[in-house]
Here is the input.
Amino acid sequence: MNKKVTFSDIAKYTNVSKMTVSRYFNDPGSLTPETKGKIEKALKELNYKSNKVAKILANGRSEFIGIIIPELFFDYYSQVLNEILTTYNDFNYKFLVFAGNHDQELEKKYIEELLAYQVEGLIILSYTLPSEVLKEYNIPIVTIEREDQYVTSINTNNYLGAQLAAEHLIQDQCDILININSFVRENVPAYDRIRGFEDTCRQNQIPCKIIQKNFKNDYDVTYELLDSVYQHLESEYSNKRKGVFLSNDNYANIFLNILIKNKKQIPEEYEIIGFDNTISKESIIPITTVAQNIQKIARSAVEELKEQIESKDSEKKSEIRHVIIDPQLIIRGTTGKNSYTAE
Amino acid sequence: MNKKVTFSDIAKYTNVSKMTVSRYFNDPGSLTPETKGKIEKALKELNYKSNKVAKILANGRSEFIGIIIPELFFDYYSQVLNEILTTYNDFNYKFLVFAGNHDQELEKKYIEELLAYQVEGLIILSYTLPSEVLKEYNIPIVTIEREDQYVTSINTNNYLGAQLAAEHLIQDQCDILININSFVRENVPAYDRIRGFEDTCRQNQIPCKIIQKNFKNDYDVTYELLDSVYQHLESEYSNKRKGVFLSNDNYANIFLNILIKNKKQIPEEYEIIGFDNTISKESIIPITTVAQNIQKIARSAVEELKEQIESKDSEKKSEIRHVIIDPQLIIRGTTGKNSYTAE
Here is the structure.
């Protein structure tokens, strides 16, 4: 029952030549609708299974792409992954997904395995391996939102995002602007969220404070750290209207909860802006946020990779490109003049 | 530079026989440490790349497993996927992931493609294709938390989860118990959340109300529907202490926000219990919830699949099994006698 059905079997069954069967697979346009229909029917009745593995060996085209992500707990990563996976319908790539949890050796081992399976390219969101190392693999690579000096990348316009946030807080007449971030290196795209924020404050001559904490990937740690930031802001800027821009929606949500528990008026005493547009809508007060265009980021990543894959065999090597996608400010209840509190 | 390095090349380079090189790959224990070291060094220096594609053709062992999920917007799916992916370190399976968004034809097309690539098995969380259809693919399959009559499955003990929730609400002296759910079919594991809730109420002679709504996968729709449920409960059970059990944390969070905005006392007027332990911790009041043991579910799925894969060639066909994993009630601020409100 599981015996392999060959072109000969199909030819015999349909009473056409093996050549015709071969043309059905490689040049179907050259056949009449009748012949095509006959072969199609035979494939079903014979329970024919195509073997793509043999094709990979023949032409090296596996149609596999590896995706390397840090983990899926941050909504941002799940959403990007989701959008990449849904490109299947348009590009037909099959995605081998790996969540490395920052284990460098394991990530290397995985990538090397993928190469042995002749994946055609890699989309990399994890930041475990420097781009200089990635480049050495010598296959098509696109990174998203991580250090990217030596490879092609798709990143959000983080500078613009921070600028939009700062301008909005300034327009809402906040007296002091605060940026809460984890420790990001200067060579990482997300560092532009600090640069853009600082520059905009400076240009508008508004006091600006950058606060960086080692948040880790843990709710309780983050909560404690943000609670200490709150205490600090209360003692330092007690009578000022505080505009707070946090580096993601999860932090923004926790910070909002701390403010509500301390009976702070929002947006009168504090304005809050998050980043990513993931859970910000589901907070007790829907949070104003900078929305990355995740669909466009994911699609551009696959398109850039496809271009690299297709130009791989040609003479002209495709050059390294850094594609920047503009984000958008989504205004909700934690900013603006409208009074909105949970009470 | 990219020319393929063969066993002959390695043999020449190391001055050992081709047979010895072959044994390095297939029976390394039979070589002395010196010989092994010599070959290892040569592989590095020659930049040898193994070709696993040829091995798939030779022995049919692709080490690929397909994962079919509906989408990644529900945290539950991302978390299960994350846990499955991290089994790579122990089982060495590589996962081809597909998010079908309930498109039956596309899902079929994808699965058939995977078969052509000789994936060794499928883990299926989507509910687009009935298990009777899945069975026909005739390869190792494990489903998670979906209709599973004809295939092996891993499910949470949903009945126990609902029972724990109901018992907790009864113990907290709620007067009326309410279960809010989407429309789930009776042949789906999650339907046991209704059965377990109803049975427990009946056994304890506590009034019980099942409310089912067509929530769709949309925040605004869900918010409107839950707001109408809130209005209904207020008018029907105004002076009663209401114990509300919702079918996931996202719904529980939205319902909690509606209560807080309406200045309801929690847990005095309303007690709330969610399901999944995903975002419940991050709500304005941390929500009591039924936590699925996602790590165990994911691991069991891979283990069950592995068993099927390994017994595939043997005479004894492995039987269909339905593995049930117990969940756990995590008690937080939305239940219990301790008074805790946002104000």
User: Anything to note?
Assistant: The CA atoms of residues 226 and 255 of chain B lie 6 Å apart. The first strand of chain B starts at residue 64 and ends at 69. Chain B touches chain A through 55 residues (CB under 8 Å). Chain B has three domains: 7-50, 59-156+295-326, 158-292.
